[in-house]
Amino acid sequence: MLRWTDSKKFSCAPPPLFPLPLESSLPSVFDPLYPGMELGRASVLLACVIICSNVPCPVGGHLYNNRYAGDQIFRITPTNDEEVQVLQKILGRMKVDFWQPNSLALICQNATVDVHVKRNDTLDLHARLKQQHLDYRVFISNLQKEIEKQTGHRSSRKRRSESQYDYEVYHSLEEIQGWMSEMNRTNSHLVDMFSIGKSYEGRPLYVLQIGKRSRHRKKAVWIDCGVHAREWIGPAFCQWFVKEAINSYQHDSVMRRLLNQLNFYIMPVFNVDGYHFSWTTDRFWRKTRSKNHRFHCRGVDANRNWKVKWCEEGASSHPCDDTYCGPYAESEPEVKAVAKFLRKHKKRVKSYISIHAYAQMLLYPYSYKYAAIPNFNCVESAAQNAVTALYSAYGVRYRYGPASTTLYVSSGSSIDWAYRNGIPYAFAFELRDTGFFGFLLPESLINPTCTETLRAVKAIASGLLKKCETDRDRFPYI
CA torsion sign, 274 to 275 to 278 to 281? Predict the structure, then answer.
């Protein structure tokens, strides 16, 4: 489903105010830094049979009723303000699905624009871009084929998932929730599963608490994945983190220390309704699935719905836009449930981490303005340690810095909300890649992506066990 573009005015980020020594690079599937092609499937045995009935089966040999056949992904690079305006005018007259950035108004000079264009509009866009002499290339020439290649046919997925749980394939919501129950049942010494509420469509919002049981009040880390439905690598990472935490507890001294001294709250799928919809109907759905009484368009951007500078710059007030902020702050039951839980436990939660894709970045507040946070030195040091640890795995480079200057300005974001509510270390990861695959990161790259990201998260968590001096009188402040 393609979304309308938004006419609300935004400003592009100025040159970064903070050092960004690590630059993104385009990956190649044949690059030795991406070894997932050759690695075996890591898995643990499941005692229960995973429910697969709600996974969409190929219709006529194709997924999603072959709805993406002939659709293309364009990468366009405007080199000056005039070209920005021309491109905005061209795309503003079409129905396109923005991949990067996520709205028309965020197009900036010398920044790539990735858009999903329906097959009936591709020839027209080719002609217009050539006529205006705009620099572009087609990244994906047939989107349906890439979708088929990402996961293979679901029938073969089902066969290899029934006997053992495979962490190197993408899983449906039903499979993930079944896996969560099994982790809770078989690892009661480290795992506790609970629900913090229900989604708009009535699905439970499950969280796993990971950590050694203790009488003392331990510091805690919150990690959520799957805020935006189409970013499937997010839930894959949350599952990977839980698997590694449990399996390495006995032999990895770093992980054992973390689980002994910290609790981790893991929410593998934040946007359960949207994630389910991305499996059954629209692979590139982003928002929640709440209904709007005035428009036919459904859903709210769950990362623009938080009660911090709500619906200001970087968010849309139009329900048909991908960055729609909602009718009011915390209108979405998923956002409200997480906010309520974090408020209740804010004295113990010292780090908030949200996993997104794609861009290869590690972001921290502020998202909504160009300014340094009061404890900037501590957070900047934690980010640098994290991207260094990530780089040590396969040499993949991440940019890091404040979200407003490193990516773009946005209001109502979860990291700004977490920071404002007293969580001193709030981060958003944008995982692989930088556009070669986009939201269709192959299953062969789940292993290396999750392996390197785990190193970064462990570095952030380890930093919480050390003291970092900051001006306590000024924090928190927003």
Answer: negative
Tell me the CA distances in angstroms from 280 to 19, 42, 230, 425, one per residue in order.
42, 26, 12, 36
Which burial class, exposed, middle or buried, applies to 466 when counting CB atoms under 10 A from its CB (0-12, 13-18, 19+)?
A: exposed
CB atoms within 10 A of CB 60: 6
Q: Give the Cα separation of 151 and 449 in Å (integer).
A: 16
Tokens of 254: 């770093």
Q: Which residue numbers are catalytic?
A: 430
- pLDDT, one tens digit per residue, over 226-264 is 999 999 999 999 999 999 999 999 999 999 999 999 999
Helix, coil or strand: residue 269: coil
Q: How far apart are CA 4 and CA 6, in angstroms?
A: 7
Residue 27 burial by CB count (10 A; 0-12/13-18/19+): exposed, middle or buried?
buried
Number of H helices, E strands in the chain: 13, 14
Q: Which two tokens stand for residue 140?
A: 């994906």
Position 47 pLDDT exceeds 80:
no
Q: Looking at the predicted structure, is the pLDDT value of residue 155 above 70? A: no
Q: Which helix (H) or strand (E) holds 265?
A: strand 262-267
User: Which residues, in sequence order, are bridge partners of residue 209?
Assistant: 192, 265
Q: How many CB atoms lie within 10 A of CB 204?
A: 13
Handedness of CA 398, 399, 400, 406 (dihedral sign): negative
The span from the CA of 471 to the CA of 33, in Å, is 41
- Calculate Rg over the CA atoms of the chain: 21
Can you name the residues that pair with 8 across neighbouring β-strands?
A: none
Report the DSSP pairing between strands 399-402 and 349-357: unpaired
HSE of 424, CA atoms in CB hemisphere, 13 A: 26
Count CB-CB contacts under 10 A for residue 312. Answer: 17
- Among 69, 62, 232, smallest CA distance to 148 is for 62
Answer whether the bond into residue 71 is a cis peptide, omega within 30°. Answer: no
Residue pLDDT, tens place only, 394-438? 999 999 999 999 999 999 999 999 999 999 999 999 999 999 999
Mean pLDDT (whole number) for 85-90: 98
Question: Which amino acid belongs to residue 257?
Answer: R
Question: The dihedral of CA 465, 471, 476, 478: what is its sign?
Answer: negative
pTM for this predicted structure:
0.88
Neighbours of 36 (CB within 10 A): 19
The partner residues of 195 in beta bridges, in order of sequence, read 206
19: Cα separation from own chain's centroid? 24
Strand arrangement of the beta sheet that strand 204-210 belongs to: 191-198, 204-210, 262-267, 219-225, 349-357, 425-431, 361-364, 399-402
